[in-house]
Amino acid sequence: MRWADLDLLGHVNNVVYVDYLQEARVDMLRVHARDRRADDLADGVVVVRHEVEYVRPLEFRFAPVRIETWVTQIRAASFTVAYEVVDETPEGRVVHLRATTVLTPYVFGTARPRRLTPEERATLEPFLGEAPTLRGAPDGSRPEPPPPSAEHFPVRVRWSDVDAYGHVNNVKYFEYLQEARIPLLATFGRELPGAGVSERSVVARTDVQYRQPILFNTDPYDCLSWVSRVGDRSLELSSEIRDGDAVLAQARVVLVWFDPAAGRSAALPEPVRQAALTRLSRAC
């Protein structure tokens, strides 16, 4: 890990984890696969969905962290990769993160997905294992459309955000969502002394559904964000990235209030909770 990977709490930023997972997935398919035909599965795929559960903060150290990566499902035109970011300590195995990624092979020349070949399925089968259990998994229902009160944030794509195929890399979506989330959260805790909501909350879970590729454009895209649930220690934000009326991505992020002195979650301060409830009532 790099020193630049850390956030204001001294933890590896939630966005950076997804970059780690991408590196681990490509390494699994390009280095550890028994057949070189797996190269197409490393490079010639698009991410359909990420589900990421942040279990325990990861702090900077010079020793590497281990990422275990395997396949949990192979379907006709997609496969699912699972991950755990772990440490082996004298006290036992410590899990920092669990996640899954659904990927589909893609023909970039025609901009269309394709089916897995028998050879590719045979390449993936040695990696098969059980799916991890992620807490707070979505119920499978379609996300609610954004309410009129949703906050708008202009997403400006940088040239460096685009991959070799001309699409914004899947990791960058997490960064866009974070950038849109911070101005919204900044309005929650203006009555709080000291650090604001962004500095005192941690991301517990992020789910992103990729609908259409984001391309480089000098005009900004629109990211809409709104409060979709409020708990005693957490709140949930939903988001959509749009190009006009076209929905490019949908996401939900669960934030937990964090007590840095105790190193664990804490109850939402009442001003923050009331601010979130006010925005939730406007969204309903």
TrEMBL record:
Which InterPro entries does the record match to this protein? Answer: 4-hydroxybenzoyl-CoA_TE (IPR050563), HotDog_dom_sf (IPR029069)
The region called Disordered is annotated at 119-152
Membrane-spanning segments: none
Q: Name one Pfam family in it.
A: 4HBT_2
Question: Which top-rank group of organisms is this from?
Answer: Bacteria
User: Could you tell me which PANTHER family the record lists for this protein?
Assistant: 4-HYDROXYBENZOYL-COA THIOESTERASE FAMILY MEMBER (PTHR31793), LONG-CHAIN ACYL-COA THIOESTERASE FADM (PTHR31793:SF24)
This chain belongs to the protein called: Acyl-CoA thioesterase
* Species per Swiss-Prot/TrEMBL record: Nocardioides bigeumensis
Taxonomy, top ranks, is: Bacteria, Bacillati, Actinomycetota, Actinomycetes, Propionibacteriales
